[in-house]
Amino acid sequence: MLTNLDLDQNALNEMKTDLAACFRAAADFGLSEGICNHFSSVVPGREDLFIVNPFGLAFSEIRASDLLVCDFDNNVLQGDGVPEDTAFFIHSRIHKRVPRARVAFHTHMPYATALSMVEGAPLKWTCQNALRFYGRTLVDENYNGLALDGSEGDRIADCIGEAEIVFMRNHGVMVIGETVADAWDDLYYLERTCEVQTIAESTGRALLEVPSAVAEETYRQFRLGSKLGAEHHLKSIKRRLDSTGSDYGA
Length: 250
Description:
Blueprint: H1 9-28, E1 38-42, E2 49-52, E3 68-71, E4 76-78, H2 85-97, E5 103-107, H3 110-116, E6 137-140, H4 150-159, E7 165-168, E8 172-177, H5 180-202, H6 212-224, H7 226-243
Parallel strand pairs: 6-7
Antiparallel strand pairs: 1-2, 1-5, 2-3, 3-4, 5-8, 7-8
Helix pairs in contact: 1-5, 1-7, 2-4, 3-5, 5-7
């Protein structure tokens, strides 16, 4: 337990609650996959510890109290259970090697994963929602099997560069952000964008791309209100969960 460590317990509990709300919302929106996939965040005030979900729980049943606090040496310092191996090796390395990645959400959500499996750039700049990701994406072209050791975790972390949205070829996606709200907002709209693009492509008709100058300006417009919008989005999912009597915060 962390009783002997200098932590802001209130801030830690708040972050766990926000993460638990995101797990539940992701399940509700069909973004989860069995007991796989993982969300994590750096512990407030500690650069050497991170919060992650334990192996064996589906997103739909995760509560704030279920979340683990781990160090980068795979020691569980708070919580019952252990992280799934790939969760540890991917998320510990991202938080350690990419300091700006305060939060990291990894899923195999269906539409985004489908676009990671086809030739060419996964996203096309053809709808307004896509433009919130303009200039922020990267494709990790080097699928290398399960991340079951530190070297694969390091490879994934080192490929991120300045991106915030990573399409992991033949695998899924990784979304990183400064806050839980930022990561949730991007994860949700990324899947919606990929869904709409997939529907449009299924018609067999050519997609109409937005001119680059307009795409850049629209991205700038999105960024002006992105923090406030993300915060309100997270609050809205917590209100919705609260209205149903969800125990996500327990």
